[in-house]
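Narrative progress, year one. The postdoctoral researcher (J.K.) led the effort to move from monomer predictions toward full complexes, under supervision of the PI. The following entry was the first complex the group processed end to end, covering 587 residues in total.
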Amino acid sequence: MRHRASLILGAVLVGLMAAAGLVSLAWTPWPLAEIDVLNKLAAPSAAHPLGTDGLGRDLLSRLMAGAANSLSVAAGAVLLGGGIGTGLGLLASAWGGRVEEALMRLCDLSFAFPALLFAIMLAAAFGPSLLNTGLAIAFINVPIFARVARGAANQVWVRDFVLAGRAAGRGRAAISRDHIVPNIAAPLIVQATIEIATAILAEAALSYLGLGAQPPAASWGRMLAEAQTLLWVAPMQAVWPGLCITAAVLGFGLLGDGLRDWADPRLVRRQA
Amino acid sequence: MTRFLIRRAAGFVLTLLAVSVVVFAVMSMLPGDPALSILGIEASPEALAAMRSQLGLDAPAPARYAAWALGALKGDFGTSYAFRVPVGGLIAERLPLTLSLALGAMAVTLVLAPGLGMAAAARHGGPGDWAVMVLSQIGIAVPAFWMSILLILLFAVRLGWLPSGGFPGWDQPLAALRALVLPVIALALVQSAVLARVTRSAALEVMRLDFVRTARATGLPRRRILWRHVLPNALIPIVTIIGMQFAAIVTGTVVIESVFSLPGLGRLLLQSIANRDLITVQALVLLFAAIVVTANFLVDLAYVAIDPRLTGRQS
């Protein structure tokens, strides 16, 4: 029962954030970059539901655009890194032996680097931008997915239908594509959901440090950095972006938890 | 046992070595010419070449790596391009602050989280359990730097009890401690949420086992069962997470020091990145990675201390 509650609450939060982001691509209550210095740090009103920021820009509009940036960077990075990692994991599992050993040792090594530190280093190396932040986060995801995919794939390779496929003379690549991937999709999707939550946190932290989104792009992390200079004047400026980050991370986390419980075959059997 | 320790220690040294190679390789591949950033764009080609050879940049990569790694072993990380002083000195000045932050946050986490987790497990399904689970779920989702800003908002802006940032220096111990309170709490709260959850689920696993039922049947007090019988048997996953958390806290200091303008290693890292001071960045990344690898090594040793049977099973 609990997993259903997580699943629903997670889906609602993610849905809300995704909807806000998608809508912002076509429409925002105010133009994103419209500066109105006479009306800066305005209190919430009918015209500006959450008020305006230090340059008089509509806060709600910028939060919506922040959702689009944050979610697309996080999801894109996890898809890219996860895709590459899954490919490597499948390769390791299909070939075994030295290939597997070498790839897995490389993964072990990469875990010695704290992820955020590595992202900071990469973001700094390639210059601060949202795209490079995404690439850095993607890079971090490669070994995570390689490990999960290889672990799950190894369990499938010993099953009878795979042995039958091999006996029938099908190649490792074909078996991986047609039989392994569908059978390891569930843990990968769960992992991806959870990693998107982590990626949103990473993007926010990097943008806060000035290594991610650059002005005038709207980003929750960056908005928090700007709000911190205005804490004494306009405290609420520092509340909304943080709430958005928390809601998005919570949403993907709950969704991942719910999906995992839902996909767990042991649980399914108990209910049947 | 001895063989296990030797194997683990060898693995530790090899990992550190591999980490140093990777750090060096990544930093060498980066665009940018240190000589150019020191001398400026108006420098003549001859001056640039002279500076490169002075920095040892004209040697082949393996030789540069060997010189750097051997120096690092002796604590000599070269001379900062930006500050023109030894990198080792820059690090030594800032290490105490970052270590106090990290160890302080770890200590607060260890005081808060296991108790909460055990309390939740003891009242499994009750309102207390539910409250701990909801709070920890939210705590995991809150970014530490936003938590910091909220703490500043409450304790510095509203109440005025604590400073909103900055560091007075260790020669004013009381003021220094006051400056560390909020950053330590910000780091610790998020990690406590994680650890409380893990403690709870590890304890719940153990509480299902027969020996706990036996202990209950013999009439041992609940408290004694929980702390003397359940917790010791639930320690393996808890220690695993603590090791990962120390790594997370250490990297977390990079962001938190920036929020509170604390002059620690994290600030130095960000400054060095901004200054393109690659040799300092290289030393700092190596240092942070070394701390993480050391934490993992200590966790491995802790496993054996907790459960000596594990020596045989680890490869």
